[in-house]
Amino acid sequence: MRTEAYTTQSNKKTIAVFVGLMILGLVGMLLDGRSAADSLQSGGVTVFGGLQRSTAAVGAFFSETVASIHELSRLREQYDMLAERLHGMEENMADIEELYRENQRLREALQFSSVLQYQNEPAQIIAKDPGNLFGTLSINKGAAHGLRPGDPVIAIQDGRQGLVGRIMQTGRFTSIVQPMFDTRSHVAARLQETRLEGIVSGTGRPDSPLQLQFIPQRARSDLRTGDVVVTSGMSQIFPPGILVGTIVSMQAMPYESSLTIELGPIIDFNRLELVYVLTGTNSDGGES
């Protein structure tokens, strides 16, 4: 009986221990299951958060790119506008500079006009009509300003007064000038040093030499390149002493009694802008 009771009690202890171990196992399994679920949930949150951050970064990149494109477009428009304004300012500065130079030229013209020994009318060349044989200049003064056909026309370049030609025709407010290089122009002149007299004629072009005729060959040894020729005053048109040109070449033809002399005009007709018409100096406007 004792033995049976001992056995029964031992079995009960074994069963109790087994049940306890089973309960502990179940509790551990439950705890492990919760940890796994928590780990899975945490991992899912981490992955999803990473995707959200990547999407946000890509969106921000494209937003910044679009904003940069708009900013570049705006800056380009501002640049074009500023470039256009700068170009306009440069044109205005060029116009102002040209007006300043024109003002300076006009002031110098008025100063020269006041010191000339002859009564004169300053005028501006408004047209040029050069030809193979004939050439004329148009000026902005006419009969209303006291100009008459035959009036001498001079200019000042590089500080020197030089002969341009004469008034050929007058309108009320404009006139036509016959320049010295016109083949129809003939000016009574003399050499400033030797006082030999001759006639200066044009050759038809503003950049061609003038011709001094009727200087005798015997005077060849007395002449030099660079000698100055002035008006002689031996006509009813041009007063004496106005610079005409300087000798650039001389030739003595054996069959002629006169020298062939070429003159470089004092006035450069290619850059002529302002002239002075000497009024009241000629007594016969039709004579050349």
Task: Explain the overall architecture.
This protein has a domain at 120-278: Beta Barrel (Thrombin, subunit H). Helices cover 40% and strands 26% of the residues. The chain has one helix at 2-115, and strands at residues 120-129, 136-139, 152-157, 160-170, 175-179, 186-191, 197-201, 210-213, 228-231, 243-251, 260-265, 274-278. It has a 6-stranded antiparallel β-barrel. The chain is rod-shaped.
**N→C terminal distance:** 178 Å
* Fourth-level CATH superfamily of the domain at 120-278: Rod shape-determining protein MreC, domain 1
What fraction of residues sit in β-strands?
25-35%
Shape: rod-shaped
Q: How would you spell out the order of helices and strands?
A: HEEEEEEEEEEEE
CATH architecture of the domain at 120-278: Beta Barrel
**Tally of strands:** 12
Top-tier CATH class of the domain at 120-278: Mainly Beta
Give unreliable regions as ranges: none
Task: Reconstruct the topology from this structure.
Blueprint: H1 2-115, E1 120-129, E2 136-139, E3 152-157, E4 160-170, E5 175-179, E6 186-191, E7 197-201, E8 210-213, E9 228-231, E10 243-251, E11 260-265, E12 274-278
Antiparallel strand pairs: 1-2, 1-12, 2-5, 3-4, 3-12, 4-5, 6-7, 6-9, 7-8, 8-11, 9-10, 10-11
